[in-house]
Automatic annotation (TrEMBL):
It comes from Hymenolepis diminuta (Rat tapeworm). Gene3D superfamilies: 6.10.140.2220. This is MYND-type domain-containing protein. PROSITE patterns: ZF_MYND_1, ZF_MYND_2. The keyword Oxidoreductase does not apply. It is found in: Chromosome; Nucleus. It holds the Pfam family MYND_ZMYND11_ZMYD8. GO terms for biological process: regulation of signal transduction; regulation of transcription elongation by RNA polymerase II.
Length: 125
């Protein structure tokens, strides 16, 4: 009877061993899945933070470029407004006729004078 009893213990013990092994596998699998989920969440958060930082750096760089471009534009505009332009051909003027009319050359002045300016000129002659 001990032989049969030993077999019964062996079979019963093997079933328990299998159950314990399966339970340990399930537990290990669940722990791995939890750990993987934590790693994915951490990676996602780090990725979002890195992406946010890159976007903010790019926005700052764009703001700085825009400010520099606006400053250059304003400087150019001021310099342009300080100049006077030929009423006939729109080149930079060096000859002045009256308060709002200037010319780049004598030729432009004569052309414009005969075309229309002599009727509008406010300069006393």
């Amino acid at each position: 009877m001990t032989i049969g009893g030993d077999e019964d213990v062996k079979q019963h013990g093997c079933v328990r061993c299998k159950e314990n092994v399966e339970a340990a596998r399930r537990q290990a699998t669940e722990e791995q899945q939890r750990h993987l989920a934590e790693l994915e969440a951490r990676l996602s958060a780090e990725h979002a933070a890195a992406l946010s930082a890159v976007v903010e750096r790019e926005r700052q760089a764009a703001r700085e470029q825009l400010e520099a471009a606006e400053a250059r534009f304003n400087d150019t505009l001021v310099q342009t407004k300080r100049r006077q332009w030929c009423r006939n051909c729109l080149k930079e003027a060096i000859y002045h006729c009256c308060w709002n009319t200037s010319y780049c050359s004598i030729n432009c002045q004569q052309t414009h004078w005969h075309k229309e300016h002599k009727r509008q000129c406010r300069r006393k002659r």
